[in-house]
Design goal:
- The protein is built from 2 helices and 4 strands; from the N terminus they run ββαββα.
- With 95 residues, it is an alpha+beta fold.
- A 4-stranded antiparallel sheet has the order 1-4-3-2, covered by helices on one side.
- The longest helix is centred in the first third of the chain and has 11 residues.
- The termini are far apart.
- The mean pLDDT is 75.
């Protein structure tokens, strides 16, 4: 899963059967207030797991990939522009 740009996050390391949905109006208000985030035009994405766990990410967009990737292989989302441009993710010398 890739959330971009993420404004506030409450997630775990693994999800069993994840479901991503937009928050209800009531959930949105509560989560934005709890996270101390401003109400930009961002969405509150709810992550639900089949084991009953519920987390959230506040971001403008979400993307995901499914498939039979090796669990040790980089995600196919890792090669999206912006995520793979070293100048955007690594500090550079100003010389």
């Amino acid at each position: 899963m890739l959330f971009k740009p993420a404004r506030a996050i409450r997630t775990g390391m693994g999800y069993n059967g994840p479901l991503i949905r937009c928050a209800t109006t009531k959930e949105h208000s509560r989560i934005v207030a709890h996270a101390g985030a401003s109400a930009h035009s961002d969405r509150v994405h709810i992550l639900e797991s089949s084991d009953g766990r519920t987390d959230y990410v506040i971001s403008a967009a979400v993307g995901w990939a499914t498939g039979n990737e090796d669990s040790g292989a980089p995600s196919s989302l890792a090669f999206f522009f912006g995520a793979s441009d070293p100048a955007r993710i690594l500090p550079t010398d100003a010389s």
